[in-house]
């Protein structure tokens, strides 16, 4: 069947091409196709969505970036023993970039569509990803913004309140090593923290985590744990409270305090815990004359260290007559395109 776009009378409005046979699309034409089986965009080894870069052997078997690092240069394709070197599969990468799928949390309220290669990273930050209730006897799951309400209604009796003044003011946590979990809640921002014990042969690992999507939003916290017995003192300070969707029983490989058996007396651990809100590096950009008689200040927060300015997220655009000078503390420059985006959004 003849494609209507290749009809001679349409030729004048098309982009010029040096390749005579190539069918040209109109500048603003968008066409979409239906993919009947999304599995073709998953890695054949780990079955997770393929991400960029994707690699291939000379026979065209593909493997995701993560598995590529594990197959030690040997193609995992069926019956294939070709090397899988640094050959990228650009065709598949283009498909991944242009295949947009709705977030898997659509039914819980997320309205975002993301390119298939970003599915995994979006789900780590999506506020609608399903969190499990930190009470180990409860099967409830719900979005991050409703799990707090559920916990307060059903499990308040065996949890601890934590101060909303985030300055390492410590709270006593008494945890039964066998029960493994103690939940703390903060009422102002509606946060749930979990202190967890992992008993193994030589002692107990203790961690503090927060129930939330692992890469969500701006608020970040650090914590300090200490344990004292018979004049001995164990203290651990973590640069960041990690976030998780579900309490699990896997022994952590980082961010934990370890209490050796020789310092344990009985089943109970008496800990002192301090949680501190991390200072976010504020960015400010001043623009005059955009709105007559006032100045536009673009305020954002660095969510990565200061040398990675590209990670800036514009949090807020404010038109103010006279901003407080405190706004300029720790301010760093913003890239031009980020300013452009903020302006576009604020004028809209
Ligand atoms: Zn894989
Ligand atoms: Zn192969
Ligand atoms: Zn989402
Ligand atoms: Zn529950």
UniProtKB/TrEMBL annotation:
Matching InterPro entries: Sina-like_RING, SINL_plant, Znf_RING/FYVE/PHD, Znf_SIAH
Signal peptide (from-to): none
Pfam families in the cross-refs: Sina_RING, Sina_ZnF
Taxonomic superkingdom: Eukaryota
CDD domains per the UniProt record, alphabetical: RING-HC_SIAHs
Metabolic or biological pathway, per its Swiss-Prot or TrEMBL entry: Protein modification; protein ubiquitination
Family per similarity comment: Belongs to the SINA (Seven in absentia) family.
Full protein name: RING-type E3 ubiquitin transferase
UniProt organism field: Arabidopsis thaliana
């Amino acid at each position: 069947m003849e494609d209507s776009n290749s009809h001679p009378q349409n030729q004048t409005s098309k982009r010029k091409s040096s390749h005579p046979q190539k069918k040209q699309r109109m500048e603003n034409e968008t066409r979409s196709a239906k993919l009947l089986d999304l599995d073709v965009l998953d890695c054949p080894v780990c079955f997770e969505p393929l991400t960029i870069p994707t690699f291939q052997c000379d026979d065209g078997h593909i493997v995701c970036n993560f598995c590529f690092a594990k197959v030690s240069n040997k193609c995992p394709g069926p019956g294939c023993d070709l090397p899988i070197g640094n050959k990228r599969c650009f065709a598949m990468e283009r498909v991944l970039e242009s295949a947009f799928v709705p977030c898997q949390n659509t039914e819980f309220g997320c309205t975002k569509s993301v390119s298939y290669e970003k599915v995994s990273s979006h789900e780590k930050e999506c506020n609608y990803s399903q969190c499990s209730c930190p009470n180990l006897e409860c099967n409830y799951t719900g979005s991050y913004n409703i799990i707090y309400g559920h916990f307060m209604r059903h499990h308040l009796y065996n949890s601890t309140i934590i101060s909303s003044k985030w300055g390492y003011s410590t709270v006593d946590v008494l945890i039964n090593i066998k029960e493994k979990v103690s939940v703390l809640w903060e009422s102002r921002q509606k946060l749930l923290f979990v202190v967890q014990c992992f008993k193994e042969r030589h002692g107990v690992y203790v961690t503090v985590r927060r129930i939330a999507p692992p890469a969500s939003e701006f608020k970040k916290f650090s914590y300090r744990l200490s344990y004292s017995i018979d004049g001995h003192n164990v203290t651990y300070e973590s640069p960041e409270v990690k976030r998780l969707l579900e309490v699990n029983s896997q022994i952590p490989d980082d961010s934990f305090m370890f209490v050796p058996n020789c310092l344990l007396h009985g089943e109970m651990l008496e800990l002192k815990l301090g949680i501190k809100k991390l200072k976010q590096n504020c960015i400010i950009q001043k623009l005059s004359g955009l709105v007559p008689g006032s100045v536009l200040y673009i305020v954002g927060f660095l969510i990565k260290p200061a040398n990675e300015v590209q990670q800036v997220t514009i949090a807020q655009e404010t038109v103010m007559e006279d901003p407080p000078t405190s706004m300029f503390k720790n301010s760093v420059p913003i890239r031009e395109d980020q300013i452009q985006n903020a302006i576009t959004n604020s004028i809209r």
